[in-house]
Design goal:
about 160 residues
Length: about 160
Amino acid sequence: MLKYFGILLIFSGCSFAGFLLALKKKKDICYIEAMIEFIKYIKFKVIYFRSELCEIYDGFDNKFLGNCGYLQRLRKEGMEKVTKEYSGRFFVREHEYEALISFAMSIGKSAWENQVEMCDKLIILLEKYYTELNEKYPNEKKLLSSLGIIAGLLFAVILL
């Protein structure tokens, strides 16, 4: 009896792990989407109001970035440090990671025209990446969920 309970527990754990990995992929997509929205907001504030960075940070609100703590830390510690940590926490490819960090290091340190140009370039790059992730996600979700279930079944068969 205990053996079957253990097998059920292992199967459930492996299946759950597959679903968690699929959920992590979705969070990565949400992070990129939220960063695109944030950079568009920065661009808007720079073009129309020539706002200071602290005003921009205080005026922006996004449910995903707020829930994961990004906005709270951004207002305290600044964009460079927080973006490095959060872009490393969520899966962001090397090229996009470097572009985000470069943007975070240089925003607010040049003429507004240059800042708008940096925003435009980063938005284009991130939107391309976002589209790519969104196209892959349904297949990856099925794959990760299936692998979790298959791993659970494999362990169950081995233990029987």
